[in-house]
Structure formats: structure tokens, C-alpha cells
Fold this protein.
Amino acid sequence: MSFKEFQNRARLYVIGALENGASREFEKARAGFGQKAEDFITECYRLHEAFALSLRPAKSSGALKERLMKMVRARKQSQPAGEQPQSQ
């Protein structure tokens, strides 16, 4: 495996998308490339973490909230009066 191919697989490895068959070959190349490989993997992890930390949580839409509230109301109305809802 060339170092360029190793770099491509390292990116997949860091995000957990490397397939089992490819992981054995990747680990063999990782050992073969030594410190150069470890440095690249460390950099990939650093970039992965920085990217994850830069993401903002998605805001829930009003439509999603309304749909959820309709489900709650429908469930509440289907319960006989005085009966506590069963937790799932």
C-alpha cells in the first residue's frame, strides 16, 4: 500500500468507516510506515475533533415540535380519565 492510499484509509479509520477486511491491511501498513503513519493519524484525530466541536446543534423546526405535541395530545386523549400513562 502506498502512503497516499494509507492516508485515505487513515481518514476512514478515524471516523470509524474502515471495513473489517481493510483494517487488517491498514494495521499492517500502519506498522510499516511507523512514526510517519502515527503522526498522520494523530493529525486526522485532531482535525476530526476540531470539526466536531465547530458544529452547532441543529435547531428543531416548529413543524417537528408541533408534530410531537400532536402525538402527545393524541396519546393523552386515548388514556381513560384518571389512569396514569405507562412508561415505555
